[in-house]
Amino acid sequence: MDRHSRLVGWLKVALPLMALAILSSLFLVARQIDPQGTIGFSEAELADRLREPRITAPTYAGTTRDGATLTISADEARPDAGNGATAAAVHAELSTADGARSVLTAGAVRFLQETRAAVLEGGVLLANSLGYEFRTEAMTLTLDTAGAKTAGAVEGFGPLGRITAGQMQITPTGDGAETYLLVFNGGVRLIYQPRTR
């Protein structure tokens, strides 16, 4: 028993000293950072970045007044000549307070700061968790409320079948029930295709 307590006493001293030696060797062996080292860009790339500023892989995330969450990401963003920004290769997700989720892809997006809107352009694809899939050329998303409006014709599929229309609009109903109204107008055509079980 006496030998055991002597061993425990030695280990209480030896183990912390070994840990201290290991930690100090990490700092001694750590690679030095050269502040004068080269940046991973060529002279031409640096000149291009200075001439045309841009952000790589930007992401916008926010919550609307009606409780929806909106996330927009892109490959690259540049400041716009006006009061906003443009981005290319866009992926957006909109989750509304009623539990529905929409995924959108587009060729580009313009953020309009004055009107608090994001204009998806260059071909927009929308897939909704309620069973809707649509294609349109351009669509405006409002950033304050979970609303969307196509700039022109829309075509796609819904739970009832194939739908084509001159325009599509999604707006909150405003009754406090966290529900949304999907409106098609401008020459609406529905080809009813019942689901087979």
TrEMBL record:
Q: Which domain of life is it from?
A: Bacteria
Q: Which residues cross the membrane?
A: 7-30
Q: Which keywords describe this protein according to UniProt?
A: Membrane, Transmembrane, Transmembrane helix
- Its recorded name reads Lipopolysaccharide export system protein LptC
Q: Which organism is it from?
A: Gemmobacter lanyuensis
